[in-house]
Amino acid sequence: ALKAGIVGLPNVGKSTLFNAITQAGAESANYPFCTIDPNVGVVEVPDDRLDKLTELVVPNRTVPTAFEFVDIAGLVRGASKGEGLGNKFLAHIREVDAIVHVVRCFEDENITHVDGKVDPVSDIQTINLELVLADLESVEKRLDRTKKNLKSGDKKYAQEAEVLERLKDTLYNDKPARSMDLSDDEKLLVRDLHLLTMKPVLYAANVSEDGVADAESNPYVQQVREFAVAENAEVVPISAKVEAEIAELEGEDKEMFLQELGLDESGLNRLIKAAYRLLGLYTYFTAGVQEVRAWTIRKGMKAPQAAGVIHTDFERGFIRAEVVSYDDLVAGGSMNVVKEQGKLRLEGKEYVVQDGDVMHFRFNV
Ligand code: GDP
Fold this sequence. Notes:
By secondary structure, the chain is of the alpha/beta class. About 40% of the residues lie in helices and about 20% in strands. The model has no long low-confidence stretch (mean pLDDT about 90).
């Protein structure tokens, strides 16, 4: 499963947010492939289309798609130098697909800020500097090796050295690797470095519980937004404390509480959706009377790979897929109508699965 890592300075609300995530937690029986680890929380991805398909098909059960949040506590100033178990935490960040960076946008004199005052942009820069320094070390090490290999005369190394030099410059200027304009080929050359600052980032601006309905007028949130625009990153305002309370409620109680707060959706839902977008993920559906279910794939996956998300046997034995788009199915109202309309397509191995496809796989066992 795909993973987003939660990072941030101490006392910004990471644990509070992470606890809300595990509270809201997904039914783990549905997700046997997910990691069992106290630092990992599995969340279901809210999707209105899944509810609509459930109305249409009336299956025995409905299963949303899920992904994982990993709590990466302990990232502090000096982490790249190995301070405060720093390197261990950086190694954990290396394993995630995206970073959710929690920043403190709430005032509370009872809760110490590590740097003595609330300043979210400075907090971001503190953490980013550690990530940049760690990347710089990886890039310089590799560059030394590549320069030695250059003597072999292989052109590949010349191109690699050129990309590494540019990366080094960028990092020296305190800019993340993701801010660079790299071609797909160039990215491939440095992919195995697993650079931390190449990962997509989302800033979770943790606001106080009383400011949650009007988070955009919070000056700290505005500062984070300004910073994020320049970096091409997303911002989701959230109140970790409120989310922890919401996570304990269900059904109508939850709706009422959200209404009282002036919210139409929990911050956690917005965060999950934003992380999903950030990761560039697509959802396809299977819709049988037993089960209507959403599955996550990466953009560009072909039908057999997409089938492999359900089970490796589906990928190995893939023959064909019957496919109808979500919109066509909803417009038609049932599989039978869609068939009559000729909107159910048979697709082969080269078919690139689209977001919202409703799929049925045929395969050899
Ligand atoms: P972490 O060190 O980043 O994991 O931070 P915690 O989640 O442990 O939070 C540190 C302290 O800040 C705890 O006492 C939380 O209750 C408190 N806290 C977290 N979010 C908020 C908030 O939105 N408002 C206020 N007033 N306190 C918060």
